[in-house]
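Risk register update: the risk of archive-format incompatibility is retired. Evidence:
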Amino acid sequence: DEKEKFEPTVFRDTIVQGLNEAGSDLEAIAKFLDATGSRLDYRRYADTLFDILVAGSMLAPGGTRIDDNDKTKMTNHCVFFADEDHDAIRNYAQVFNKLIRRYKYLEKAFEDEIKKLLLFLKAFTETEQTKLAMLSGILLANGTLPATILTSLFTDNIVKEGIAASFAVKLFKAWMAEKDANSVTSALRKANLDKRLLELFPANRQNVDHFAKYFTEAGLKELSDFLRVQQSLGTRKELQKELQELYFLLQVVLYVKEEMKRNELPEPAVIGLLWTCVMNAVEWNKKEELVAEQALKHLKQYAPLLAVFSTQGQSELILLQKVQEYCYDNIHFMKAFQKIVVLFYKADVLSEEAILKWYKEAHVAKGKSVFLDQMKKFVEWLQNAEEESESEGEEN
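Archived output:
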């Protein structure tokens, strides 16, 4: 018994022999697995156990069968050798249900096994893929498996060859044969997969029209309709968010203008305060490689506000100096300076005249050499663009 517990090949031989003796009697197979778990280490050899129950033998990385040439180490009494029929696969699903109910600790190991098998799909024949899809769909329907197993289908090598989409269609059909479309869409939402279904297709086909056509032709119109609704809701939410942000910015603009009037504040004084407020509104990432992206996203949102209060050349220069000082004082921003200036230029917060004046004479001492070096190419581009427009004007 000790040898059986800790020797994988003995474990395999015991399982294979028991399955072969039970034959096609699934009730006998379930009883054998139940009884054998008390003397074999299912916890340690869960992957071997499930490999044999699904594929009939142990699997090597990639999905090839380790004992393919030795029939004594294989069994035909497994999912891959079952009839390609929904009822036949459902009967096998019951074997897994009973086993996992009896040995609860196998639940996570079984989930990991199915995720692994989905990554190995290329190694299996089309009929084996179909049976695995049916088994997965039935077990998803009865709750033995979570919808998160589907993330394995988003792997590049099976997506590119069309295996992921084909497998998903068969899986969803089996799932809906057990339950209904609502159970599928509800589980996808809970697992945050409802917006990722397009990833079943290669990048050049990741659009709603292609998905809808493919799934409708496969007899899954309910899922194509579901995706269309999800996309529509997503677009609506994004628009709503943009409108809320615009309304917020409008409120801030009106408030600041009132304060300027009441306290007789000049625009150049206000732009510096606004910059400080905007930058203090965020908890910045401590990693230099991430902070630039975070800053640009944040500042893009507030660029329209800054543009309202940088209409004078002096205001623009003060803003540039504030940005320079901030990037110098906060070391993670050192490399982000040029990107911020270019963003503000494109968003009409800063004019080329202000940038050129800052570069030539209006910069501050803090980090001067670093920031001037960062801006060199962009300034050259601005100067060339200015010269070209002047020469065009003279020609006209």
